[in-house]
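Reviewers of the previous submission asked for a worked example of the structure-prediction workflow described in the proposal, so we include one complete record here. The input consisted solely of the amino acid sequence. No template or homolog information was supplied to the procedure at any stage.
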Amino acid sequence: MSEVEVIRAVSLGDCPHGFLGRRGGVSVGALAGLNVGYGSKDDRAAIDENRRLGIAALLPDAKLATVHQVHSAEVVHAEAPWPMDGRPRADAMVTDRPNLLLGILTADCAPVLFADHKAGVVGASHAGWRGALAGVTDSTIAAMERLGARRGNIHAAVGPCIGQASYEVDDDFRARFVTIDPDNARFFAAGPAGKPHFDLEAYVVRQLIAAGVGEVEALNLDTFADPERFYSYRRATNRGEADYGRQLSAIALR
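From that input alone, the workflow returned the following structure tokens.
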């Protein structure tokens, strides 16, 4: 088993955080690696161990809080982990409690981690296209402000997600965005087959900049295009695979 790979964002500084891929876990077969998704058909003991390994790589002895992600703009204030069968249905979390990792699971959607180092407030959001369009990052920033953060002091990093070259959509998908704001046309480009390709990362970055956060960092890592490093729902679907893994992105305060 290889060491857990922790991808860090310069903008988040020494705040315990990381975007994890599939390297370093104990799962085998099609989901080989650091699969942390209980929604997969993977062995439950392997998922438990992968989560333990992920926590140890980020902040040993911390607790991990996750939510039941539903592609929404809902955000919750986390003070402790919820039991698996009692997790709120939401797509973002904020906290001012130390040693509590806010964990987002993705397999092409964009994980976004936030930190206001001065206020001692962090956040994490799951920004798939539905959540991004609904304003999940705006909700996260507003919730951080309710805990004392100031948006001008917030640093935000967008982690590994499906890249535009890999993200073919249809005309109805494009129309949904352009109808809301004609300027959203710039996040679409014609692909080799003539269909639109959507730039999810750039769209999320624009949302963050428009919200007025102090610093935005995009890691520009395509989950679809790097099967050795990341899980990808769309890649698994295109290959006709029956299941897919999920990777963890998390942030905490010491």
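The CA atoms of residues 237 and 243 lie 8 Å apart. We consider this example representative of the routine output the project will generate in years two and three.
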